[in-house]
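Lecture 7 notes: from sequence to structure.

We start with a single chain of 339 residues. Read the sequence below before looking at the structure.
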Amino acid sequence: MSNNSTSSYCDAILASSAGPPPVYNHTTRMAIAAVLGILLAVTFLGNVVLILAIVQNRRLHTRTNVFVASLATADIGVSLLVMPFGIYQQASNKEWRLGELVCLLSTSADVMLCTVSILHLLCLCLDRYLAICHPYLLQHVGKRLTCQIIVACWVLPIFISFLPIMNKWNTIGIEHFIACLVPPEGVCVFLVNPEFAVICSIVAFYIPVTTMTVCYWRIYRIAQSQMEQISKMTLGKLRKKTKAATTLVIVMACFSICWSPFFLLNVIDPFIGYRIPYVAWLVAQWLGYINSAMNPFLFSFFNSTFRVSICRVLGCNKYRSKIETETSVTMSLQDSTFR
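Now the structure, written as tokens:
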């Protein structure tokens, strides 16, 4: 293809694409970076406190809370390995001076940690499903199997993040778009071909969310049916398990709401010639990151045992006795809400 033909071809692609990202003045860039920096700090500190609350309170030493702690670890990873690079791009007006390798590594970490989070939510969902629908099967899930499952939740995402991204499988077939849309250096943009977008979105988001939705619906139906047939003593235990499942439904719903825009854009954009504007991508991406900051607040708000334990970690002496008094009756019924 001649230079003129190449230029005309790229001009056509540029004309139909979303165009370059907006350029902000220094004050606006610093303000955006400051807000995102606060979000990073809240995400990191909130999840560290959540892990300490689990470690220091024997009531929270349960199989389910091992998954919660591992999920919090993934969210800490988002705050340390993903958010700083996003803030850097906003502060530098989307200019990237850290090299291609760091760009690929940060992008891979982003995809991996998102997938790790949803796999943990899926495991939490299946744990509640077995606890209510098949309690005898749950007895066979010991510490060793729990550890193996958690390791799998961290290892399997590598195969849809670091492996394909570091090998640039996501760019196969769209090299012409990238050559026209992305400068050879100075930027860090993650473009994916239609096959990568569809497969990764289905595996990392749509299948787990659909599975969790079906499981929680089954939990609700079976719990309603059992409540009409069992004794009051057993009913109390069932209500405890159902309340734990309700908390996890809220956590899952928040995850789905926060990440749905991103995965919707991720599937659509390759099929419409990468026309979705930069700002829409930015909002969708950071809405997903916000989810990493939400989980500590969700668990503490909906779980009295977590609330008291977090208060102890933070040294809230002024309110601790009041909280312990208010929740003592509830906690006696819920020796561990997630057991």
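The chain is about 75% helix and 0% strand. Keep this in mind for problem set 3.
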